[in-house]
Amino acid sequence: MTDSLLRLVLILLFASAFNLSAGELKPGGVYHLSFQDVDGTNLSTSDGHVTIVTVVTRADEDKARKVADLVPDRYVGSEKYRYVTLVNFQGKLPGPFQGLTRAIIRNRLGVEARELLPDYAKRKITHDPRGDLHAIADFDGKAVGQLGLPVENDAVVVFLFNGRGELLARWNGVPPANGAMAKILAEAR
């Protein structure tokens, strides 16, 4: 192999390796990402809200609840903090079923909001909890792609952004119950 051909091969290998890892979101990076939830609400990682995004598949939806349970009560119902569940359908749900699926998700969020009403009343939070519940139904992989994940991703991944879009933490799987998330949330702005 000639030197110039060898250099070209090495450059191509380096460039392809760089491109594969360039999409991964890393703590400390600032990411201005935009999503639309099942209610049609536009959400951004850089709109002033501290945002937790939990990516799950249908098989792991219960893990989104486990992540939400790690969020200290003082942040629940706060206008500054937002919890978002992103359901990755991995491009497997045909178009005709997508509208029905959004409706089912909205209904489940409504049920969850009604369950939160007594807790909100006890804590003297006067707004409707339904406005605090956000779910993104990612049918085509565009939302997970923004997070640097492939559409085939079937792992639970949790991202915590400050209000300016800086990624403060990323966990592969449900974060440990050792208070790490609470500590980062306490320092987030």
Question: Can you walk me through this structure?
Answer:
This protein has 189 residues and is of the alpha/beta class. 37% of the residues lie in helices and 20% in strands. The chain contains five helices and seven strands; from the N terminus they run H-E-E-E-H-E-H-E-H-E-E-H. Strands 5-4-3-6-7 form a five-stranded mixed β-sheet. Strands 1-2 form a two-stranded antiparallel sheet.
In terms of topology, how is this protein built?
Layout: H1 3-22, E1 34-36, E2 42-44, E3 50-56, H2 61-69, E4 81-88, H3 95-122, E5 133-138, H4 142-146, E6 157-161, E7 167-172, H5 180-187
How are the strands of the biggest sheet laid out side by side?
5-4-3-6-7
Number of helices: 5
Large-scale geometry: globular
Extended strand count? 7
Gyration radius (Cα, Å) is: 19 Å
Note the beta-strand portion: 15-25%
Quaternary form: single chain
Mean pLDDT over the residues = 89
What distance separates the N and C termini?
Answer: 55 Å
> Which structural class do the helices and strands define?
alpha/beta
Biggest β-sheet strands, sense, barrel: 5 strands, mixed
Low-confidence stretches: 1-22
- Helix proportion: 25-40%
Strand and helix order? HEEEHEHEHEEH
Features of this protein?
alpha/beta, two-stranded antiparallel ribbon, single chain, disordered N terminus, 20% strand, five-stranded mixed beta sheet
